[in-house]
Write a structure and sequence with these properties.
Layout: H1 7-13, H2 18-57, H3 67-76, H4 78-112, H5 114-127, H6 132-143, H7 148-171, H8 175-211
Helix pairs in contact: 4-5, 4-7, 6-7
């Protein structure tokens, strides 16, 4: 004899009512607003406490300026800050991109090859025993006073975390899946190399036919 669906199973399979959807939306909006309001209130409270401390204890500007003075100086020197900020941002992005371009393939090699892991990991660990502050003067001597030493410092700081994070992420995935992804990437790249000349030749034939 087939079992009859109970009231609980029917209610669980029933679609959500508009009232439930409205309450879920209100709950989501409440969580979103709390995630915005609480950090904003915390920042405002820190700024107020900062200003009160500076005014109460009459702290000189060269030790701890008030937040309103900091904001006024930022507005006054905005062009200079933007210029040097863009320079710093370019250094950071270039160094990080170089670290990712070298670190991610190295992480793939470490995961896919046990020999590569035995060779690379000791050097990676040893590289973290040298303070970056100690390397900075040497980089200035080698690379000069331009942007290259800054890029090199960012590269050295970001390279090890990129490699380790990528290795941990790849080791959480099955090796067969990684090999399949590499194979698919190779197939797609070969198809693109074949498709681009074909597309160019077709366009050239269409252009020649149109001109004739």
């Amino acid at each position: 004899m087939p079992l009859q669906p109970t009231h609980a199973s029917r209610s669980a399979a029933a679609p959500p009512t508009p009232a439930h959807a409205y309450s879920a939306r209100r709950r989501w909006l409440g969580e979103r607003s709390s995630n915005l309001v609480v950090p904003t209130l915390a920042i405002v409270a820190v700024l107020v406490v900062w200003a009160v401390i500076v005014k109460t204890f009459e702290i000189p500007d060269y030790l701890l300026p008030a937040p309103q003075d900091v904001a006024a100086r930022i507005v006054k020197e905005w062009s200079l800050l933007w210029k040097h900020g863009a320079y710093t941002l370019m250094s950071v992005l270039t160094g990080f991109a170089a670290g990712a371009a070298i670190g991610v393939p190295l992480a793939f090699g470490i995961v896919l090859s046990r020999s590569m892991e035995r060779i690379a990991m000791p050097f990676l660990v040893m590289s973290q025993t040298i303070p970056k502050v100690a390397i900075a003067p040497i980089l200035v001597v080698w690379l000069g006073f331009g942007i290259l030493p800054k890029i090199a410092i960012v590269f050295l700081i970001s390279f090890f975390p990129i490699v380790v994070s990528t290795v941990v992420g790849l080791k959480s995935v099955e090796t067969d899946m990684i090999a399949m992804g590499i194979a698919l990437f190779t197939i797609v790249s070969k198809l693109e190399r074949l498709a681009i000349p074909w597309h160019v030749s077709v366009r050239a034939e269409e252009t020649a036919a149109y001109q004739s």
